[in-house]
From TrEMBL:
It comes from Leptothrix cholodnii (strain ATCC 51168 / LMG 8142 / SP-6) (Leptothrix discophora (strain SP-6)). PROSITE patterns: GLOBIN_FAM_2 (PS01213). Keywords: Heme, Iron, Metal-binding, Transport. Heme binds at residues 50, 74. This is Globin. It comes from the Bacteria. InterPro entries: Globin-like_sf (IPR009050), Globin/Proto (IPR012292), Globin_bac-like_CS (IPR019795), Hemoglobin_trunc (IPR001486). GO terms for molecular function: heme binding; metal ion binding; oxygen binding. GO terms for biological process: oxygen transport. The keyword Magnesium does not apply. Its cofactor is heme. Pfam families: Bac_globin.
Amino acid sequence: MTQSLYERLGGEDRIQRLVTDIVDNHLRNPLIRTRFEKYNDAERAVIERHVTEFFCMGSGGPQAYTGKDMLTTHKGMNISEQELIAAIDDIVAAMAKHGYGDTERNEVVAILYSLKGDVVRV
């Protein structure tokens, strides 16, 4: 039986550690860091929890996503395609650091690109 992407990503605990590194990467990325620097530690914790839930649910895990939908979350932010690509690059870099293979990284990138219409220039 084929494992789900969620299982191949290592479940919630491993995904949560990945998300922490993704946010750290975003904070170091000159193209998008200003979008994240404004959040205090408590707000960052909420963002990380929502991203972890979203990652888990979107990869086939049992978790429920309790955040806003993507369009509502990103509406009015005027995110550019360049910023989206920068964010995806940060995610791929974190996945590489955590030892995920090309198959998992490519599946995650495909999922992220499928959300483009709810994120870019909305």
